[in-house]
């Protein structure tokens, strides 16, 4: 797996559209942070793919069990748990499965809904367990090829493992002598010997920062492309989620404009770029989104969703959105142009929940040392 990790990390962090390293909490091999006893798993290790999330969650528990100063306490106690897992997504639940196998006393703390990222995938989204050559030897396993099947499969594995999440939002993690304290919003703190943070990119969606962005017609997720057939849609972004959204909408019959501030797509995978260009030349082209680089990104379009004539696709590269109005949007590339518009998708991704890590005293890349904030 180290070779795969290196390859994906290189792609993610040298092709970042802003031309700089994305701000993420600093972690080393095994998710180790500079706060002793705390590990980070899942998307926040820098690779947002389902298989990597499962592997890092399970691997973190195994690494804890191998620590010379850690030994299982036969289930822990209510006053002192062996482990607190913050986040009930794929990474967190994979960690919980391994913790259960090891007989650890643990709690899974979830602020919203277990597997919420998968729950919010678009209807009928194809699932690709990518990279195909990666084999999982623990944690959650994946066999389903569509969103609904994947969710059922994950929930079944959770039930079979006998794992229930505890509702609660962690505000910060503090070191108290030899133990860790997880401070819970409006709740009793949890004391544990180790903590795994599996909260993913659960921060705010990135914003355009333009007038009109608060209108009801502006979305940052696409759930069902068919709902927007015959509508004039603007998609904003240059990553795989933006390209897959534009492809899905076009194939479902929408009139799509894709706006990206750069002159070329530097971060999207070549296959998506090729399919996008094919649709721009011929909206009836037979394309399908396969093996997405970011499986948490929205959305894919299958041939089964293509129930009516294709729409159209226009690429507006090198443009910035300047404002959004109820019946039109404005793009600028030297001069400003107004486009008729019914719906806008700002597919810019989500921020990492950096304030949580700052409150916990965990270093963030690009922000210097813990004492330098």
Main features:
alpha/beta; 15 strands; 25% helix; single chain; FAD/NAD(P)-binding domain; 7-stranded mixed β-sheet; disordered C terminus; 373 residues; elongated
Protein architecture, described:
This protein has 373 residues and is an alpha/beta fold. The protein has two domains: 2-204 and 351-372, FAD/NAD(P)-binding domain; 218-346, FAD/NAD(P)-binding domain. The chain has eight helices and 15 strands. The strands form three sheets. Strands 1, 2, 3, 4, 5, 6 and 7 form a seven-stranded mixed sheet that branches. Strands 8-15-9-10-11 form a five-stranded parallel sheet. Strands 12-13-14 form a three-stranded antiparallel sheet, with no helix packed on it.
Topology readout:
Layout: H1 2-14, E1 38-40, H2 50-65, E2 81-86, H3 90-101, E3 106-110, H4 116-119, H5 147-161, E4 165-167, E5 170-176, E6 179-184, E7 190-197, E8 218-219, E9 232-236, H6 240-252, E10 255-260, H7 270-281, E11 312-317, E12 320-324, E13 328-333, E14 335-340, E15 343-346, H8 354-360
Parallel strand pairs: 1-7, 2-3, 2-7, 3-4, 8-15, 9-10, 9-15, 10-11
Antiparallel strand pairs: 5-6, 6-7, 12-13, 13-14
Rg, Å, rounded: 22 Å
What percentage of amino acids are in beta strands? 15-25%
CATH architecture assignment of the largest domain: 3-Layer(bba) Sandwich
pLDDT < 50 stretches: 10-20, 289-305, 369-373
Question: Mean of the pLDDT scores?
Answer: 86
Tell how many strands the DSSP assignment holds: 15
Q: Helical element count?
A: 8
* Count of discrete structural domains: 2
The oligomerization state is: single chain
Q: Gap between N and C termini, in Å?
A: 34 Å
CATH topology of the largest domain: FAD/NAD(P)-binding domain
Mind telling me the CATH superfamily name of the largest domain?
A: FAD/NAD(P)-binding domain
